[in-house]
Amino acid sequence: MRIIFSLFLCLLLINNVFAQSEDHELVQFSGVIVSKDSLIPLPYTNIIIKDSRRGTVSDFFGFFSFVAREGDTLEFSAVGFKKSRFIIPDSLTNNRYSLIQIMSRDTVLLQEAVIYPWPSKEQFKEAFLNLKVPDDDMERARRNLALAELRARAKAMPADGSLNFKYVMKEETSKLYYAGQLPPNNLLNPLAWAAFIKAWQDGDFKNKE
Predict the structure, then answer these.
(1) Cβ of 122: how many Cβ atoms within 10 Å?
(2) Closest alpha carbon to 81 in 66, 102, 65, 53
(3) 97: buried, middle or exposed (CB in 10 Å: 19+, 13-18, 0-12)?
(4) What angle do CA 20, 23, 29 make, to 5 degrees?
(5) What's this model's pTM, rounded to 2 decimal places?
(6) Which of 30, 116, 201, 208 has CB 3.0 to 4.6 Å from 65, enough for a Cys bridge?
(7) Strands 73-77 and 63-69, bridge-based pairing
């Protein structure tokens, strides 16, 4: 008798479970997932039914659609956004339900990362001990003066091939600019006169033989 009574109770529990599952009808649940700040669709967002292994993933445009039940709790998760939940209403008038789910951005604070140019402390110690530092301010001043002298000599050097090419091309461009008309007369050009006087003072017109 006890065995029969136990089987009878099991049958009653199974019938109640099926009755409750039938009360929650299936729903074609679909929608779009967007960000809260810009309303841009969020692609590849995970939608999972809580306490189950069923769910789906939104497409590139943030759209999703799958079958769920009334009263199911849905969990939305995406990288860089806070998780959110939504409960499907249990008093729907039809078997379709649409949703626009808004996701808020989540700021993740990472631990501080210190980047060193040496892989180990031993290599840092070796590089630090072998570091060549200028003796004094005088030595550093000599090096700076040497660089300044090199720059001055570079300016005094005659033009190389590239500068000559640029000069020729500039002259050709100037000729094309004044094609079909008289070129300007530099006789009254004050800049040309200033250049002439400077060249005369520097002795550029003297016989160098």
Answers:
(1) 9
(2) 102
(3) middle
(4) 115
(5) 0.42
(6) 30
(7) unpaired
Q: What is the pLDDT of residue 176?
A: 72
Residue the block writes with tokens 């008093």: 91
Mean pLDDT to the nearest integer, 168-195: 72
* Cα distance between residue 61 and residue 40, in whole Å: 9
Between residues 71 and 23, the one the model is more confident about: 71
Task: Tell me if 26 sits within 8 A of 94, measured CB to CB.
Answer: no
Strand partners, 41: 34
Q: Distance of CA 138 to CAs 101, 132, 142, 145, 147, Å?
A: 70, 16, 6, 10, 14
Indicate the Cα dihedral angle 78, 28, 41, 102, nearest 10°. -70
Q: What angle do CA 88, 93, 99 make, to 5 degrees?
A: 40
